[in-house]
Amino acid sequence: QKEVEQNSGPLSVPEGAIASLNCTYSDRGSQSFFWYRQYSGKSPELIMSIYSNGDKEDGRFTAQLNKASQYVSLLIRDSQPSDSATYLCAVSGAGSYQLTFGKGTKLSVIP
Amino acid sequence: KAGVTQTPRYLIKTRGQQVTLSCSPISGHRSVSWYQQTPGQGLQFLFEYFSETQRNKGNFPGRFSGRQFSNSRSEMNVSTLELGDSALYLCASSLAGGAPYEQYFGPGTRLTVT
Fold first, then answer.
1. Which letter does DSSP use for residue A94 in this model?
2. N or C, which end of chain A has less CB nearby within 10 Å?
3. What is the four-CA torsion angle of B58, B41, B4, B83, rounded to 10 degrees?
4. How far is Cα B16 from Cα A104, in angstroms, rounded to an integer?
């Protein structure tokens, strides 16, 4: 059974701080890793994808992948109240479009 | 480019009835996946279609079925509805044909079974 684990939170950070979200996965064959943001009552929105070990930066977001440790993280720099949402980690195997999701971490950015 | 569209957005059905949900992918996207989201179980994969063929199926009973048309539009059907089928049903589309494997979600259909 493939599993993706995330701390449910809530994670509270002050405005302007760095938010760090973590995710571990059980399937060593996983090849593709994604972070989605979901606002309450809305559908998930893709914010980052990462396929190889290391860091990938996009604006205020940095995804980090360590396949040996089966660990993927998302850093949000200069956090804004508009970043308050649930962040979902998703993983898929080689050549697969079947995503396995974690339960999500609820982030609250305090003004 | 228009995003993924899903219809209807909200649906109320009675136990035992059946329901059909529709999804139109982003233009040019050929893979369509369906997910069920509930507060208890989170997001769970139902199935994925590409070129009118189901390539992957999640761990759901046979009451859940789907299909894809030649224009990549997809439908999913749930027969003999149960109270536990109340959920947000999400459709996601991808370019397919290899990497990248990013999936983009539609707004979802909120199904309530009474």
1. T
2. N
3. 90
4. 32
What is the overall mean pLDDT for chain A?
Answer: 95
Please give the radius of gyration of chain A, using alpha carbons only, rounded to the nearest integer: 13
Kindly state the DSSP code that residue A19 receives in the 8-state scheme. E
Contact A50, A63 (CB under 8 A): yes
Q: Please give the structure tokens belonging to residue A100.
A: 């396995």
Q: Say if residue A111 is preceded by a cis peptide, omega within 30 of 0.
A: no
Chain A residue nearest residue B49, CA to CA: A97
Question: Using one digit for the tens of pLDDT, what is the confidence trace for B30-45?
Answer: 999 999 999 999 999 9
A17-46 residues touching B, CB cutoff 8 A: 32, 34, 36, 42-46
Residue A65 has phi, psi (to 5 degrees) of -125, 135
Give DSSP secondary structure letters for A31-79.
EEEEEEEE-TTS--EEEEEE-SSEEEEETTEEEEEETTTTEEEEEESS-
Q: List the one residue out of B45, B2, B5, B44 whose CA is nearest residue B27.
A: B2
Q: Which of B44, B48, B107 sits opposite A43 (nearest CB)?
A: B107
Q: Say what the alpha-carbon torsion angle A75, A78, A84, A90 is, to the nearest 10 degrees.
A: -20
Smallest CA–CA separation between B101 and chain A, in Å?
Answer: 7
Q: For Cα atoms B28, A58, A18, give the angle at the middle one, nearest 5 degrees.
A: 140
CB contact under 8 Å between A97 and B42, yes or no, is no
Mean per-residue pLDDT for A78-104?
94
